[in-house]
Amino acid sequence: MSETAHSNVVQIENLTKHYGEFVALDSLSLTLQKGDILGFIGPNGAGKTTTIKILVGLTRPTRGVARIGGADCVSESRKVRRLIGYMPDKFGSYDNMRVREYLDFFGAAYGVPRSERRRRVAEVLEITNATWMQDRYVESLSHGMQQRIGIARTLIHQPEVLILDEPANGLDPQARIEMREILLRLADEGKTLIVTSHILPELARICDRVAIIAGGKLRALGNLKEVTAQLTQRRTFEVQCLGADHLTAIENQISRAIGDADVSASDTEGIVRFRTAASDEQLSGLLKTLITAGTDVTQFREVAGDLEEAFVTATQAATADSQTSESAGESVAADASAALEAAE
Amino acid sequence: MKGSLVIAEREIPGIMRNKPTLWILLTVAVVFALTILLKWPESGVSDLTGSQARGAFRSLAMAMLTAVVLVVPAFPATSLVKEIRRRTMELLLNSPLHRYEIFFGKALAMFCFILVLLTMTLPAMTCCFAMGGISLTSDILRLYVLLIVVCLQLAVLGMLVGTWAGSPESALRWAYGCTFALVVGTLIPWQFLEGMEGPLGSIASFLRQLSPVPAMLQMVSGTTVSQVGLRDSESLMESYFLYAGLFIVIGSGVCIRRFNYSLLDRSRSQGVITDELSSGGQVARRLFFLIDPQRRKAGIPFFLNPVMVKEFRSRQFGRLHWLLRLISSCAVLSLLLTFATTMGTVDWGVERIGGIIVIAQVTLIIVLTPGIAGGLISGEREAGGWDLLRTTPLSAGRILRGKLISVVLTLLLVLCASLPGYAVIMAIKPNLREQVMQVIVCLLFSAALSLLVSATVSAFVRSTAVATTISYGLLMLLFAGTLVVWSNLDAPFSHTFVERVLSVNPMAGALSAIAASGFETFDLVPRTWWTSGILCGLLLITLQLRTWRLCQPD
ipTM strictly over 0.90? Predict the structure, then answer.
């Protein structure tokens, strides 16, 4: 195995999963290095949970390989289990168990020695700001508190990789902020994190890498800027000027100079915004024109693309793909039946 | 009452559309067809005296009562708890419907289901009627009236339990426990105190009238057939109707009264921890509890299976203070029986006392085991804990061992609690030592079989409530169903046939070992050991394979 392969903590190659005719995952490939925080995004039924379940050894892939720390997730699943901390979207509580007992049980299940376990329980409760709830019954905790205990449980055996399925789901804003801080602290400690979420602004704040999956296929992978650039062809720009007098003139000039631009002006902000696929040369020409025309332009800037936009673009592409394949299937079927009719 | 119809319209499809209902109805139809087939005259011609027809009628009636007792309590008990858990009860209580309308709507839906259930018995009953010797009004009609009253009583009992229970599983446990106590438990004192004068005899006689079984037996036995202990002039049917009617009216009233927001207002206790109490409080708890369940625990030691400890801690019943209460109750009962043995041994004989202990203990095992073991795996899968267990390095074998041991220890403690009773029996009659040992082995087999049946069912079913119901059904079939065959000894079942059937029932083995009344002629030991042992072995292999499969990637 190459040196690069060894440095990759998580390695997924052509991972495919079929449920009968349904393709849940189609040739997914990605790698993660130590300390990466991967935001795993996709609409419902995109294949996120299937990927995670394969990684944690709960599901067998139809094709492809998934490795964590060099160990195969299927054939070496017992080794993999010690390397990962898995937090499913469903908490999985036990009745009549106090938080400390709950964590102690999982520590024992992972083979953490008793003396060390006591210290670890205290540590993970400290990390997740949950020490005060150590004597509470697990099922009596609120959802947000349970999520914290879920994270504490994943940390009890000091895994290298944390796989968190929707950790921010159902949390209030304050709890989300706390969850974000916990995850960032874990990344600082060198843990590799795979986090799925529907709350994209949250992911944008914590993830250094993003993978967008839709229809079982990986649509984009990279850091936030790369992903938005991959998926967002039309960029947004803002032109700010002194006072609102020139706004209409600027709006008209943009529309004349760049044909495809969607232009809108905000009187209160004194800003004209436009979205366009124009090249940098065209934009440079536009700026010259505006200055020559005597408009009091104070700022001309590009607005950073956001994850939500990229997500919507990827999802639309997936829908278009599936529609194309369906229509292709229909036309093949129509051709086949026509051929049969002709033969008869 | 229009609101009741609205509720019933919603409830009836809910009950009738699910698969378990379909299976229950089909099973009932098949069992009744088999019952009548067993009693059908071999020559195809019925005797003129009508004794064959009466025999068939009696078997059918008992089978119908058994079916009703097994099926009816589960539906009302779980329906209410599920409604509370799904939070649809909030919507109902917020609607303009009055609470009595909600209650009667649910009762009406249950009544419709009961009618469908009883309709499944009509083909078999028609065949029985065709054999002759059975009256349409005084036999068949009375039987159906009695069964409807039993069903209503059990439905009210189930709903009553549902208003208190916190989960479908606990609702099932309590509903079946109460049903078993009402139908069978009330008969046990009479079995041993029959004919006795004084308050004890009166209490036993009164308790017997609460159960539908004597009324049913009196009705179906007619004038030619009589049951031991039931040959009396009083009308048991009337007294049963009276007490059942009272129960239905009072129970319905209590249920309606409890249909309010208090059903939804069940906050979970945060559980005060002993370590945070004052030093005086801590000392008091140390004195009161041998092992304080509310004390902060040390970690799980390396030599213990973590799953076993988890099972003990997470089960309401497994939590040590509950276990201590249970064992204390068993020990008190055992001491009372011991006292009764020494005081009344001349009149009763140790065999009768031994019989009481055996029946009481097996009853306790049957009531207790599905409640604990029915959710061993299904409960974990239902709550989402199974996937977490699968992602730990624990092997399937270790998980299963931990779970089984947690129940085995509980059952062993329950069995041990009655040892003083057996010790006194051996002290009174030293020559019974070998028989007592045989009884203890039979009881161990009863416990093992109950545990493995429940655990195996639990491994195949996703819902704990369903697993618990199926386990209760199977155990009742094994322990009580075989006794139904025994009660039909010589009419129509031969001694050999009954002995073969009883060989799967370790409780019958224990009763035969102690030579209890009615079992003296059977030689069931060691045959029941072999049968139970083989059954346990097969169940254990199945359970192990299934658990291993469940631990593999999907």
Answer: no
